[in-house]
Here is the input.
Amino acid sequence: MHRSMATFTLEPPNIILSLLLVLLCSSVWLACLPWVCRCWLYVFQGWFKFSGLNMEVGLRQHHLTPLLPFVVPYPHLQDVGPDARTWWITAVVVLVLFLASLLLPKKLIPLAYLLRGLLFVQASALLYFALTPGQFPHTPDSYLESLMNSGLALISFVPVVFGLTYYIFNFGLIRKTLLTALTMIHLSLFFPLQVLLQAIILQKTVLFMPLLYIVFGMPLDVTIIIAFYSWGMSWPAQTESGI
Here is the structure.
């Protein structure tokens, strides 16, 4: 048993408090959800107007309950397949980076493996578009809309995830609430910028969509949650005052 669990005891009051905190944080988030989506809409509209990008904002209506409608915005793009020039430039860059990874010193082996993993994903995309360029099943619209919905669902489940993995520990009610709020606020601010950056790339070509999805999509957001969780677990235990 890991030392962090050696003296851990899950008592009924802790379970009840965790459930109540999950319900409280989830209720506050659901109440703020329409306003968050509206802020995302303003971010997209403001950026498109400021940058002069040839994009529009798509809207998708959702109803969790009849009393809680909200509209999820997403960048609306035209489907642009990779042309020969983009394909060959990307292929050369992938090859050069792969050869460079072979020259890295042994102390940078983890970095070399990470780089090769990214290059493998992009190389598979290059091979796919070289063999069947007209059969790619995803469009930028469907991908970005799915990314927005997935991100919204991920943020909504943060209280549940922390309820199972963080609230059960003796960190105090204020710290648990603070960590949850910081994580959800950070993701709410980070997520539209992440989608915007991907939209800018996909506006040029869908050649990089597999890499964006597998590496820089939801896995990146999950990593942010893990980082906040690790930070919260490094805090000292609850004091006598209960803070």
Notes: The two ends are 28 Å apart (CA to CA). The chain has two domains: 21-78+136-233, 84-131.
